[in-house]
Amino acid sequence: MSEQNKARKTRTGSVVSNGMEKTVVVRVERKFRHKLYGKYVKTSVKYLADDPGNQCNIGDLVLIEECRPLSKKKRWRVKTILQQAE
């Protein structure tokens, strides 16, 4: 029972593509310090996220939340749109 009450993972990223129906591609970037060299490295990961209302546009800043598998690659859902693209 306690597994259902666990907090779900959330990520903040920008919408890269909204060409699919009810699905958006969100790029999440993160910066970390390299262990050996100490240089800051920036990496990015793309997630397929469910957008049931087709409300997201390219360039929007969104908050996505982990959910059950919705399709082969879609395991995230758009929770809120933080900032609209201009």
Q: What do these coordinates show?
A:
There is one protein chain. Helices cover 0% and strands 53% of the residues. With 86 residues, the protein is mostly beta strands. The protein has a five-stranded mixed barrel. The radius of gyration is 15 Å and the shape is globular. It has one domain: Beta Barrel (OB fold (Dihydrolipoamide Acetyltransferase, E2P)).
Question: What layout of secondary structure does this protein have?
Answer:
Blueprint lengths: L9 E8 L5 E11 L6 E11 L10 E6 L7 E10 L3
Parallel strand pairs: 3-5
Antiparallel strand pairs: 1-2, 1-4, 2-3, 4-5
* Uncertain regions spanning at least 5 consecutive residues: none
How many separate domains? 1
Helical residue percent band: under 10%
Average pLDDT: 94
Major beta sheet, specifics?
Answer: 5 strands, mixed, barrel
Task: Identify the CATH class.
Answer: Mainly Beta
Count of alpha and pi helical runs: 0
Question: Distance N terminus to C terminus?
Answer: 44 Å
CATH superfamily: Nucleic acid-binding proteins
Could you name the key traits of this structure?
53% strand, mainly beta
Task: Characterize this entry briefly.
This protein is mainly beta and 86 residues long.
